Every structure is written in structure tokens, then in C-alpha cells.
């Protein structure tokens, strides 16, 4: 196993075993026990969700947190909900994924050139992790950002992920512009050898209202492909 892949396998094992946040641990287990009626026949993952994708990728994707009946059910980032449908369809269109959807962890989906993670690894109630929970998860993302220090592109899905990435990169000593850039769809932050791209999160709140359209989302990934040289 290549060194970076082994490094991530160790990190992901630590993520799955994590119980640092009692509220999130209880919530994930409750959702896995009670389930949604449409998935009552399935066994939920109900734990922190490991990252997913190509360990040698040149694009790091950072989301907010797993969805209660999405990744908390399937055990794979952005898998099993509408946000994941949008993400993997867009990645497939851009040539980063071998198929346009991800339904469950064993569906054959693979990513090339992209690694997908999140600022928080447990599904939070109302999709709102507390500041303390975000900070408890911080070391996992710090280690991934360190491992991807040579990646030319980071795509942050949503304002929370965007701001967290900027905080962690600034803490590592990167020359983050001051005043710190504000999140918006399509914003780009030049960090020297790395470009941070902000995108609206493909949540139902954004996609159902038309705040985020497929052409808008596809443009993010086409830009990421060009900047990454993949």
C-alpha cells in the first residue's frame, strides 16, 4: 500500500472509532436505531464517517458533515442523499468519478484525482455542529490538509467548510489574505501553490430553491480540473 494511502487508512480508522462528542455519538446511534421508514430494512452505519476517494488526488473536497440518513446510513461520504447525488453527478461530468451516482458503499463508485472529506465527521442534529464539536474534529482535517499540502486545489462546500479550511491553513502558516476572504459561490483564494475554491453546498435548501443550479455546480468542477491539471 502506498505511503499516503496507508496514512489515510490509519486516520480513517481513528475517525470511525472516535467518541469525542457525546451529543453526536448519541445522535448518530439514535438515528441508526430509529431509522427513516424508507430505509427501515437497512442497517445504518451510525458512527463517524471516514473520508473517501483517491489518496493521491490533486483536488481535496471539504464538506460540512454527514447527513443523518445519508452518510450516517451508508458509511460513505456524500452517499445516499440528494446532496451526494448532486456531488457525484458533477464529479462524473468533470471526469473525476467513474459513475454518476453513489447509492451505497459497495456500489462500485470510485474517484480519480479527488478526495472527499468533511469538517465534522458525525451527523449533527439539524445539520448544525457546535463550535466545540467542530474543534473536536479539527485534528482529523488538519492531518488531511497536511497530507494534501501539495494539492493545487481545495474545494470547500459551504461557508462553514470554507471558513474552517482558511482557519486551519492560516494556523499552518500559509499566507491567507487579510482581511480574510468572504465566502461566496465561485470565490477563489490564491494561497500560493494552492487555490481554495468556495461553492454553495449542494443541500436541498440550495438546490430546491435554485440558489445552486447544475451549470453553476459543474462550473466549479471544471475550474477545479483546469487548476489541478488533471
Please sum up the structure shown.
41% of the residues lie in helices and 11% in strands. It is α/β, with parallel strands linked by helices.
Roughly what percent helix? 40-55%
List SSEs in N-to-C order. HHEEHHEHEHEEHH
Briefly note the CATH topology name. Answer: Uracil-DNA Glycosylase, subunit E
Number of domains: 1
The structure class reads: alpha/beta
Extract low-pLDDT stretches: none
Could you name the CATH homologous superfamily? Answer: Uracil-DNA glycosylase-like domain
Number of helices: 8
Strand order of the largest sheet: 1-3-2-4-6-5
Into which percentage range does the β-strand content fall? Answer: 5-15%
Mean pLDDT: 96
Main beta sheet? 6 strands, mixed
Plain-language structure description:
The chain is 41% helix and 11% strand. It has 230 residues and is of the alpha/beta class. The protein has a 6-stranded mixed β-sheet with strand order 1-3-2-4-6-5, sandwiched between helices. The longest helix is centred in the middle third of the chain and has 17 residues, at 131-147. The mean pLDDT is 96.
Question: Which keywords apply here?
Answer:
230 residues; alpha/beta; Uracil-DNA Glycosylase, subunit E; 6-stranded mixed sheet; 6 strands; 11% strand
List the helices and strands and how they pair.
Blueprint: H1 3-17, H2 22-34, E1 52-53, E2 59-63, H3 71-74, H4 82-93, E3 114-118, H5 131-147, E4 153-157, H6 159-171, E5 188-190, E6 195-199, H7 204-208, H8 214-228
Parallel strand pairs: 2-3, 2-4, 4-6
Antiparallel strand pairs: 1-3, 5-6
Helix pairs in contact: 1-5, 4-8
